[in-house]
Amino acid sequence: MESDANSGCAAPSVYADRCPLILALDMIGGKWKLPIVWYLSKSETLRFNELRRRVSGVTSMMLSKCLRELESDGIVTRTEFSSIPPHVEYSLTNSAKALVPILHGLYAWAEEHVASHRTPHSDAPSP
Q1: Does residue 126 fall inside a structural domain?
Q2: pLDDT band at residue 115, thresholds of 50, 70 and 90?
């Protein structure tokens, strides 16, 4: 909805409407969540330290925070094992697995439209 210059009424913000796309981007956006989802999509499951090694530059505290948020948003499943020593594995939910082809499409779009406008990051994951 566009602003009506004659009536003086401004269009409502897309944030006020809680657009589903904005909600989805809130779930996976930010510096660390998308790389976490990306690396989990490449493996059936990953342990915390494996994820920390793959997501270059993330601190343990930030990785824990992001994983908790992704779990509460239904993107990641956390499985605890009471073996000796105990360990935790993370994997994508079925719902999040449906997101992977969309991420591949976004990656292809970015290669075509965005990458030519910026210097590529050497640590960026590739599909």
Answers
A1: no
A2: low
In a domain, 127, yes or no: no
Apex 36 CA angle, 31 and 38, nearest 5: 105
Please say if the pLDDT value at position 121 is more than 70: no
76 with 91: CB under 8 angstroms?
Answer: yes
User: Which residue in 10, 75, 2 sits closest to 39, CA to CA?
Assistant: 75
Q: What is the CATH number of the domain that holds 59?
A: 1.10.10.10
Question: pTM for this one?
Answer: 0.74
Residue range 79-103: average pLDDT? 93
Whether 28 is in a domain gets the answer yes
